[in-house]
Design goal:
Layout: H1 25-33, E1 36-40, E2 46-50, H2 53-60, E3 66-67, H3 74-77, H4 97-108, H5 113-117, H6 120-135, E4 141-142, H7 143-148, H8 150-160, H9 167-170, H10 172-177, H11 184-207, H12 213-219, H13 228-258, H14 261-264, H15 272-284, E5 291-295, E6 299-301, E7 304-306, E8 311-314, H16 316-319, H17 353-370, E9 371-372, E10 375-376, E11 398-400, E12 403-404
Parallel strand pairs: 2-8
Antiparallel strand pairs: 1-2, 3-5, 4-11, 5-8, 6-7, 9-12, 10-11
Enzyme class: oxidoreductase
InterPro entries: Cyt_P450, Cyt_P450_B, Cyt_P450_CS, Cyt_P450_sf
Protein name: Cytochrome P450
C-alpha cells in the first residue's frame, strides 16, 4: 500500500503544496486517474482517499453505509485508540442515526436563518468596533489577530452566553487542539482545559440562566432533556466549529480578495454577498485534510469496493475543484452559484453555516469599504499559511492601508 510519504498524493496533515489557494496539483491527477485510492496517512491510518465531487457527496450523504462515530480527523491526529470508542456526550459529529437526530434537531432551531439574523446588529457592532481599533493602530498590523480571530470568538461567546470577563480565555482551547505541530499530549491537555471551562459555564447556566443557547436548552421542556455532559460537549463542539473556521475564512478570504482586486471591487454591489460568500467557501475549502467516515457495510464508491470496517477520507478541497462539478473551478467568481461541499454534505453538514455566512457577509464588505487602500505587507512567499493545521488559513497577515473612513 502506498503511503502519503511516498505516493504521489498529498500528505494530509503535514505541509501541503497549496499554491496557496489552489489544492495540490496531485489531486488533479488523482481525480483523473485514481479517484478512490488507498493510502496510509503520516499518523499510520489506512484510508481510501476520495477526490471527486460526485463520490464525495455519495459518501457524505450515505448515512446507511458510512458511520461518523470515529472523529472526522482521527486519521490525522495520531490517536488510534479513539477508533471505535463510545462517542463523547454531546459531540453530535460523533453520533449517527437516532442519537445524532436527537442532538441535532433541537440544536438546529438555534441556528435557523431567522434566529441567526437576530445576531446581525451585534455582529455589525463588533465589526465596526474592530475596524475602529485598526484605525488607531500604526505600522503593519496583523489582520488575523486584530480582526479575523476576535470577531468569531466574540460571536460564539455571545451565542453561548459566556460572561464578558471570561471571553479573553475563551478562544485558546481550539487553537491548540487543531495545531498538528503540537504533541498529542499538548492537544489533549488543551481539550481538558476546554472541558473544565465549559463545566463551569454550564453549571452557571443551571444556577443563573440567561438569554442564550445553553440556558434555552436547559429550560426547554423535553421528554429527553440534555444532560450536563451533553451540554458541555455541545459547547466544545460549537466553539471548535464556530470559531477557528470562521476566523480563518475571514483572514484567508481577505487575502484572496486582495489578490483579486476586480472581485474585491464588487463586494459593495447590492446582493453580491448572497453568492459571494458561498463562492469564497468553495474556493478556499479550508477543511482541507480529508473528512473521515467508516464503512459499516461493503459499499462501492465510484468503481472501488470499500469493505465494511475500512475508512474513507473525503477531500473537500479536491471535490470543490472537480471540473466535472463545474467549469473553470480554479477561478474565484463571486457571481457563481454552486452546490459546493465546503460545509460538508448530508446529515452532518455544518450546523452553523448560516451564522458563518452572516459573519462573512458583514465582515468582508465592511472591511474593504472602510479600510481604504488595504494591502498585504509581506510578499506571498513570506506569509505563514496553516498547512499543518486541520483548518487551513493564515497565521499572520500583516497589512497596511491609506485611511479608514466612517
Amino acid at each position: 500500500m502506498p503511503t502519503l510519504e511516498s505516493a504521489p498524493v498529498p500528505r494530509g496533515a503535514l505541509p501541503q503544496d497549496r499554491c496557496p489557494f489552489d489544492p495540490s496539483a496531485r489531486y488533479e491527477r488523482l481525480r483523473e486517474e485514481d479517484p478512490v485510492t488507498r493510502v496510509t496517512t503520516p499518523a499510520g491510518f489506512d484510508v481510501w482517499l476520495v477526490s471527486r465531487y460526485d463520490d464525495a457527496r455519495a459518501v457524505l450523504g450515505d448515512g446507511e453505509s458510512f458511520s461518523n462515530v470515529d472523529a472526522s480527523s482521527t486519521h490525522l491526529m495520531g490517536n488510534k485508540d479513539k477508533l471505535g470508542a463510545t462517542p463523547p456526550p454531546g459531540i453530535l459529529l460523533r453520533h449517527d442515526g437516532a442519537s445524532h437526530s436527537r442532538l441535532r434537531l433541537r440544536l438546529a432551531r438555534e441556528f435557523m436563518v431567522k434566529r441567526v439574523a437576530t445576531l446581525e446588529p451585534f455582529i455589525r457592532s463588533l465589526v465596526a468596533e474592530h475596524i475602529d481599533r485598526l484605525a488607531s493602530m500604526s505600522g503593519p498590523v496583523d489582520l488575523y489577530r486584530n480582526f479575523g480571530l476576535p470577531i468569531p470568538a466574540l460571536v460564539i461567546s455571545e451565542v453561548l452566553g459566556v460572561p464578558d470577563e471570561d471571553r479573553a480565555e475563551f478562544g485558546h482551547f481550539t487553537a491548540s487542539q487543531v495545531d498538528l505541530t503540537l504533541p498529542l499530549e499538548e492537544r489533549e491537555a488543551a481539550g481538558a482545559a476546554g472541558q473544565a471551562f465549559f463545566a463551569r459555564l454550564v453549571a452557571s447556566k443551571y444556577e443563573n440562566p440567561g438569554d442564550d443557547l445553553l440556558s434555552r436548552l436547559i429550560q426547554e421542556p423535553s421528554d429527553e432533556p440534555f444532560g450536563f455532559e451533553e451540554l458541555m460537549g455541545l459547547s466544545l463542539l460549537l466553539l471548535a466549529a464556530g470559531h477557528d473556521t470562521t476566523a480563518n475564512m475571514i483572514t484567508l478570504g481577505t487575502y484572496a480578495l486582495l489578490r483579486d482586486p476586480d472581485q474585491a471591487a464588487r463586494l459593495g454591489e447590492p446582493g453580491m454577498m448572497s453568492t459571494g460568500v458561498d463562492e469564497l467557501i468553495r474556493y478556499l475549502s479550508i477543511v482541507h485534510n480529508g473528512v473521515l467516515r467508516k464503512a459499516v457495510r461493503d459499499v462501492t464508491v465510484g468503481d472501488q469496493l470499500v469493505r465494511a470496517g475500512e475508512h474513507v477520507a473525503v477531500v473537500l478541497e479536491s471535490a470543490n475543484r472537480d471540473p466535472r462539478f463545474m467549469s473553470d473551478a480554479d477561478r474565484l467568481d463571486l457571481d457563481r452559484r454552486s452546490a459546493h461541499v465546503g460545509f460538508g454534505y448530508g446529515a452532518h453538514q455544518c450546523l452553523g453555516q448560516h451564522l458563518a455566512r452572516l459573519e462573512l457577509t458583514v465582515a468582508l464588505p465592511e472591511l474593504f469599504r472602510r479600510v481604504q487602500g488595504l494591502r498585504a505587507v509581506q510578499p506571498e512567499s513570506d506569509i505563514p499559511f496553516k498547512n499543518d493545521m486541520l483548518v487551513y488559513g493564515i497565521r499572520e497577515l500583516l497589512v497596511e492601508w491609506d485611511e479608514v473612513v466612517a
